[in-house]
Design brief:
Order of helices and strands: EHEH
Number of helices: 2
Shape: globular
Strand order of the largest sheet: 1-2
């Protein structure tokens, strides 16, 4: 039910093709967590109020990436 979007680095620049679009790209310097069962439009970022959930989801993502790209 939850969707996690990991943060981009604060020094990370968007590629020109994306920056020039002038659209919401979903990239943020802070983590994003959305409850898709009640917020399908991803308007209410739950990350700040749920640090434990962010930690859990970050760990799950890290594990998947490490297993995939070893």
């Amino acid at each position: 039910q939850y969707k996690y979007i990991s943060p981009i680095g604060v020094d990370t620049e968007l590629p020109d093709w994306l920056a020039a679009k002038n659209i919401e790209n979903g990239l943020s310097p802070t983590p994003q967590v959305f409850d898709l069962s009640s917020d399908i439009g991803e308007q209410n970022n739950l990350a700040a109020g749920n640090p434990g959930l962010v930690e859990k989801m970050e760990a799950q993502l890290k594990s998947i990436v490490e297993k995939t790209y070893q």
